[in-house]
Amino acid sequence: LLDNPEIQEEIYRKDDRLLTLLKDVYVASTDPPARVKDGGDEHLPCKQEEKRLTKLGHLGDLDVNKVPKGKISLVEALTLLNNHKLHPQIWTAEKIAAEYSLELKEVNSLLEFFIPFTVQEFPKETRKAI
After folding, report:
1. If you write DSSP's letter for every residue of 15-51 in order, what string do you get?
2. Name one GO cellular component term (predicted).
């Protein structure tokens, strides 16, 4: 193919008609304007996260006062786990879910996988045996 001089001449020959057509083609390309991300558009309303007051009882000074719905504070988690451990027939998963605004499947997982520790104090007579 490259040995043929006619093909070589055709490859390197200028075609004036194609060159004039190519000169008429003009492509203008611009990037989209850069936007600064500063927390979103000002004209869109900000979604307010719905919160609820915590049920802390006498431990109120140890924890936060408000949590988003669907979440619980640390003191609440320990309280509800202990309540369920002491009175499982009263503090069922359904009652806990309703009381603390939680999903039932999350409460079931919580009760299954998180068990509060029990502190046991041994009588003085048995301490020496240990």
Report:
1. -HHHHHHHHH------PPPP---SSS-TTSPPPPPPE
2. mitochondrion
